[in-house]
Each structure stands twice: as C-alpha cells, then as structure tokens.
Fold this protein.
Amino acid sequence: MPSISSPNTILIEVQGDVLKRMGKRAEAYVQFASFNPSVLGFVKAGSNVIYVNEIPYSRVAIDSEKSHDYLYVVILHEYLHLIGIADEREVRKITLEMVGRKFGENSNAFSFSKMLTFPEDVKIMENRKYFSHYM
Ligand SMILES: [Zn+2]
C-alpha cells in the first residue's frame, strides 16, 4: 500500500486541515476493524480512537487515489465528531465544504462525501455516557 494512503498519514493531514479551519486539534488514532459493512466508521465518546471498517474499505483499497480520498472523508467525518461536534448534519456539512475546497467538486472525495448524506443520522444512543456514532 502506498504511504499516501496510510491511515495515520491521512489523519495527520486531517488534523492539520481541521486546525486551520476551526482552530481545534485533538489527539486521535485510527484503527481498522471489521464490523457491519453498512457502517463505514465510528468513534465512541470518551475515546480518541477512530475505527475504520476494513470491509467496505477493501473495495477501494486497490486504487491508491480512491483509497486516499475514501479514508480522508471517513477519517475527517469521525475526527469532527471526536473534537466535539455531535450533530450529524453539521459534521456532514463541514465535511462536504472542506472536501470541496481541498479536492474540488469533481473529485472522488467530493462525490463520495455527497453520497454519504443519504443514510440519514443512523445513530445508536445507548445512554448518555456511551455514544456510538454510525456514519
Ligand atoms: Zn457522523
């Protein structure tokens, strides 16, 4: 896998872009895991781990450009939750704006980001302390 698509390299890119746009930065780690393939990634409240689902990711992983764009969008989305934006619409809006500005509106990243506005607000709230976010 080319280093450009390494999830932690992309996380550093995301952290820099979010810092520039919002003046906020948080420690975070990306970890691949296998779970329900309709869920692309998630974060848990009180944790700084971004879980990226390796099952849907494996469909784009062979193409290094698509792989980078895919991971950028998923990691950015989850990272925005991690820095404290819980609202799903707000996160999607910021993600789409940032991706459009960075990659352009004809990019894979932008169309991918736009596609993600369909599965509306699939969330599980088990209690106030434990918050599982589904993208
Ligand atoms: Zn989300």
User: Anything to note?
Assistant: Residues 77, 81, 88, 91, 133, 135 surround zinc ion (CB under 6 Å). The longest strand covers residues 29-33.
